[in-house]
Specification:
This protein is mainly beta. The chain is about 5% helix and about 50% strand. The chain is globular, with a radius of gyration of 18 Å.
Length: about 325
């Protein structure tokens, strides 16, 4: 199976859009929850090259592999976090050159696997497994589960890992907490109370701050990673959701779904300095590795808004399928 996974990698640049732009830039991957598929966008044209069916109920998030043009999509199920519905138990691997699912990892029981994140140093794949209150550790080359990390909380929905690979942070939606994880020792370091309910999570480029959005008030929690406490709150124009720091470390972009905007936060002053109008229902924010562009998945509009970070303006809207949600960048191989 793993041999089959790698067969198409050498032909990836030919099998995709076939443009020099794609070969140089990579690909933008976008989950289409309502289509139970993964959209593959050529950033040079802003067009969907293909939508690949996930062979499952639906995935919510995606990670791109560090080797080969492979995408990893945990199959969460047809429910929302903390709500009744089907419970996923597997993760599919998609070959972006062959444009098909080429492997699947079964977690052994229903776990609602959700957020996949590659460790920046060890190359392992970490997936939140909600119903087990854990993060599952996977060796991507063999698709073997090699460990788990307890979060100590229910509904550990989203995961962010520090750039040095030492710490992990989960946003625990229902409890309204953040779990701090020792990624090497695979244990919980601390559970931080944040709000009645929290969502999404990101880490500053210097690993000094962790950000998560209060789902009951228009504010963003700023966690000091040195003390593992909430240091301050950033007032927002509306309730926040997904966020991501710019690669220069100066700003944080925060999706505001109810306002159809993205807030721009100055990380020196820890204040919102402006907003950018985007398509309806912004969810997640992803930075292009070029450091010049940000992408915002917009569920309500079934589009991805592309933002020019120099001007703070939306340069184009890229049409996707129903339930536009999680994104990842697949670098050209």
């Amino acid at each position: 199976m793993l041999r089959r996974m790698m067969l198409g990698v050498g032909m990836a640049l030919l099998a995709m859009a076939g443009t020099a732009g794609t070969a140089q830039q990579g690909l933008l991957l976008v989950i289409e929850k309502g289509e139970e598929s993964l959209a593959v966008i050529d950033p040079a044209t802003g067009k969907v090259v293909t939508s690949i069916h996930e062979n499952g109920v639906t995935g919510h998030e995606v990670a791109a592999g560090p080797t080969g043009w492979l995408a990893y999509v945990p199959i969460y199920g047809d429910s929302g976090v903390g709500k009744p519905g089907s419970n996923g138990r597997n993760m599919v691997v998609i070959d972006l050159s062959a444009r098909e699912v080429v492997a699947s990892l079964d977690f052994g029981h229903e776990v609602r696997p959700h957020q996949p994140v590659f460790g920046p140093k060890d190359g392992l794949l970490y997936v939140t497994t909600e119903l087990d209150n854990t993060v599952t550790v996977i060796e991507p080359k063999t698709l073997k589960i090699v460990g788990t990390i307890p979060t100590g909380q229910a509904e550990s929905h989203m995961l962010a890992i520090s750039h040095d690979g030492r710490r992990g942070y989960t946003a625990n939606v229902g409890p309204g907490t953040v779990s701090v994880l020792d990624m090497e020792a695979r244990k919980t370091v601390k559970i931080i109370p944040v709000a009645p309910s929290t969502q999404r999570i990101s880490v500053s480029m210097d690993d000094k701050w962790v950000f998560t959005a209060d789902q009951t008030k228009p504010r963003l929690a700023v966690i000091d990673t040195a003390t593992n406490t909430v240091k301050t709150w950033i007032a927002l124009d509306a309730v926040g959701y997904g966020s991501a720091p710019t690669l220069d470390g100066k700003s944080l972009l925060v999706a505001l779904p109810g306002a159809n905007k993205v807030a721009v936060v100055d990380l020196k002053t820890m204040k919102q300095v402006r907003t950018i109008e985007v398509a309806a229902g912004p969810q997640a924010v992803l930075m292009n590795p070029n450091g010049k562009t940000a992408y915002v998945s917009c569920d309500g509009a079934q589009k991805v808004s592309e933002i020019d970070l120099a001007t703070g303006k939306v340069t184009r809207e890229m049409a996707t399928g129903k339930g536009t949600d999680g994104m990842a960048w697949a670098a050209a191989r």
